[in-house]
Design a protein that fits this description.
Layout lengths: L1 H22 L16 E7 L7 E5 L2 E2 L19 E2 L6 E3 L2 E9 L8 E9 L4 E11 L4 E8 L10 E8 L7 E7 L6 E3 L13 E4 L1 E9 L7 E8 L4 E7 L18 E6 L2
Length: 267
C-alpha cells in the first residue's frame, strides 16, 4: 500500500511539473495587468446635416465602425442621425485627444470631416456631436463635445433629462416638457441654450411627455415632439438637430434634414 501511494505521489509531482514547464514556454504567458484602466466613457453622434457616414476616432484609434454581413467593416459608417456603437458609451483612457469623424465610404476614405481637440478626464463621461450643416465643397462639418455629468437616480418615480442644442442655424432656445398625465403644466429643462451648448441634467417625474422648444420672448414653439416616454431611474439627452429651415416633424426624427428632438438614453 505504501509503495503504491508513493508511486502515485511521484506521478502527481511529474504532472504538475510538466504543466508548470508548459506554462513557462512561449505558448502562454501571464498578461500584464499593471497598465491603466480606461475609466472614462464617450458617445459619438452624427448629427451633421448632409454629412456622409463616418467612423469616429480618438487620435488614431478607431472608436466606432459598422460590421457588414460578410464580417468585414462596412463602408456606410455611422450615418446622419445615428449614434456610434448602437448608442452605447465607448471606453477611453484619460488624456488629450483629437476626436474626429472620418468618412467611411470608399471615396475619400478616412478623410477627417470634423475634429475636436478635447481633454478627457479620468472617470468622466462625454458626448461628441457632429453638428450643423455639411459643407460639400470643403468637406467639413461642425463638431463639439459636452460632458455628461449625470448622477444615477435610485427613485423609480424620477427620471433625469437634459437638453443639447446641435442646430447651427437656430437661435438659442429653451426645452419644455409637459407631462401628458398631469394637466397643462410645463417644466423648463434648464435654461436657454445656444448652439453647441447643453443644460445640466434635471430630475422630473417619470411619465409620458410632450416636448417643445421656444426662443426667448416668443410664445410659439420652434420645435415639438409628442408622446416621449421617460422611464424611472433612467437618464436621457434630448438633442435639437437638423436644418431649422426645413419643416419639423412632431413624432420623431425619421426624415432626413428635418428639425427634430432626438431622444437618446445615457443609461
Amino acid at each position: 500500500m505504501t509503495r503504491t501511494m508513493n508511486r502515485y505521489s511521484a506521478l502527481a509531482v511529474l504532472v504538475i511539473t510538466g504543466l508548470l514547464s508548459a506554462c513557462s514556454g512561449d505558448k502562454w504567458t501571464m498578461p500584464d495587468l499593471s497598465g491603466p484602466i480606461d475609466n472614462s466613457r464617450i458617445k459619438f453622434f452624427n448629427f451633421g446635416v448632409n454629412a456622409p457616414g463616418v467612423n469616429f476616432y480618438a487620435n488614431e484609434k478607431k472608436m466606432t465602425a459598422i460590421t457588414s454581413t460578410t464580417g468585414t467593416e462596412a463602408t456606410t459608417g455611422v450615418a446622419f442621425g445615428g449614434v456610434g456603437a448602437g448608442g452605447a458609451y465607448v471606453s477611453i483612457a484619460a488624456g488629450q485627444y483629437a476626436l474626429t469623424g472620418k468618412i467611411a465610404a470608399t471615396t475619400d476614405k478616412d478623410l477627417a470631416i470634423s475634429t475636436v481637440n478635447q481633454a478627457i478626464a479620468d472617470g468622466k463621461y462625454y458626448s461628441f456631436y457632429q453638428s450643423g450643416i455639411y459643407n460639400t465643397t470643403a468637406k467639413t462639418v461642425d463638431a463639439f463635445v459636452v460632458e455628461d455629468n449625470f448622477t444615477p437616480q435610485d427613485d423609480s418615480t424620477i427620471t433625469t433629462v437634459r437638453f443639447v442644442h446641435a442646430i447651427s442655424n437656430a437661435n438659442p432656445m429653451t426645452l419644455y416638457a409637459k407631462n401628458t398625465a398631469a394637466g397643462s403644466t410645463e417644466t423648463a429643462i434648464g435654461t436657454e441654450v445656444a448652439y453647441k451648448g447643453a443644460t445640466a441634467f434635471v430630475n422630473i417625474p417619470a411619465g409620458v411627455y410632450d416636448l417643445s422648444t421656444r426662443y426667448t420672448g416668443l410664445s410659439t414653439n420652434a420645435m415639438t415632439r409628442t408622446g416621449v416616454s421617460f422611464v424611472g431611474r433612467k437618464i436621457y439627452t434630448i438633442t435639437a438637430r437638423g436644418d431649422i429651415t426645413v419643416a419639423p416633424t412632431t413624432t420623431g426624427c425619421a426624415a432626413a434634414n428635418r428639425t427634430c428632438l432626438d431622444n437618446t438614453a445615457n443609461r
